[in-house]
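Summarise this fold before class:
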Amino acid sequence: MKSKLSVLEGSFTIHRFPPNYEIPIRLFEGLFCNITRSEDEVSVICSSAVELDSLSADPGWSCIKVIGPLDLTLTGLLADILNVLAKVEISIISISTFDTDYIFVKSTKIHAAIDALLQAEYIFKQ
């Protein structure tokens, strides 16, 4: 049986900051925020309602959540979802947490992504 999915409400923006960026606490007020730091940059994905003065920003993303929690030994689930989306030429950004996976697609492609995943027998929770 395929995993259940849901679409998070709202629109998301991906921001790029310098590696020494200080994270404002208000980022944690929304339902979802991801912060990744490398030696080259800090990337933030958060609600588009949060205004940030980033080096660059790419707004207009929607988020598909795999309903979890998932077993950390589970293999192939994210690969299968991404393969379904790749076959219909939908680019993604994926994020994994301890409990689950999140797949971001451009908001202009969210309906096509949902249709493709439904055809692949994934179930969307309302």
Notes: The chain has one domain: 4-124. The domain at 4-124 is CATH 3.30.2130.10 (VC0802-like). Residues 78 and 101 are 7 Å apart (CA to CA). The chain has a mean pLDDT of 92.
